[in-house]
Amino acid sequence: MITLQTLLYKTQEIPYDGTPLAPHWIYRKFDLLGDALVAFIGPAIVPTDHMVDLEDVKNNAPIRSPKMLHFLGEWFIDSLEMGILLQNFLVANVYQRLWEKGVRDLSRRGNDLFYDRRKLSVSIATRSSVSVLVHLGINVETQGTPIPTAGLQELWLDPWELASEVLEKFQQDIEQFKKARAKVLAR
Questions:
Q1: Residue 129 to residues 27, 100, 132: CA-CA distances in angstroms?
Q2: Which of 22, 36, 72, 149 could make a disulfide contact with 32, Cβ separation 3.0–4.6 Å?
Q3: What digits encode the pLDDT tens for the residues 139-151?
Q4: Would 73 be classed as within a structural domain?
Q5: E runs forming strands in 47-164
Q6: Gap between the Cα atoms of 89 and 136, Å rounded
């Protein structure tokens, strides 16, 4: 059964280099043991040797952003397929929040979001020996990115407000999922 603890970490910026996409990083950093989704802000510099996306590694496409809103989730389940569905669910949640805030010219290809045909986010799901991990990074600022990107700053959106809404809605959706599963009469 999927459960969820959430945390919005506003104390300081945390740089993201790909290494937080590891089992128990959330527990070590935030003292949340078990299934959890956290949000924090920090620069992103992910060299190819820290990437789990083999397509990006093969294309020698490191990730770089001066400031991103990061969502990092860990679920202690065995199914990478379920992890990819949770990733998809998280990205869809962000897409819906942005749309509700009036962001138009927004599109989604797979688990990537685009604004005005420029990349707004990066995302990946992977499996460790004990869990499934998901990272979603949304550009806040875009100076110096290696490809054409868009960010929350140009959309006049507060990343903390967005993060808080996404965490709250995601947790509500997980609770609704659990209730829907429990209320069904199996035959």
A1: 16, 38, 9
A2: 36
A3: 999 999 989 999 9
A4: yes
A5: 63-75, 106-109, 112-115, 118-119, 121-127, 132-141
A6: 11
Question: Is residue 57 pLDDT above 50, yes or no?
Answer: no
pTM of the model: 0.92
Cβ–Cβ < 8 Å for 158, 176: no
Contact 50, 18 (CB under 8 A): yes
Helix (H, G, I), strand (E, B) or coil at 141: strand
Place of tokens 């997980």: 174
In a domain, 187, yes or no: no
Beta bridge partners of 96: none
Number of domains in the chain: 1
Which residues constitute the domain of residue 110?
5-182
CATH number for the domain harbouring residue 13: 3.30.930.10
Percent of the chain whose predicted confidence (pLDDT) is above 70: 90
DSSP 18: S
Longest dimension (CA), the chain: 57
Tokens encoding 99: 């749309």
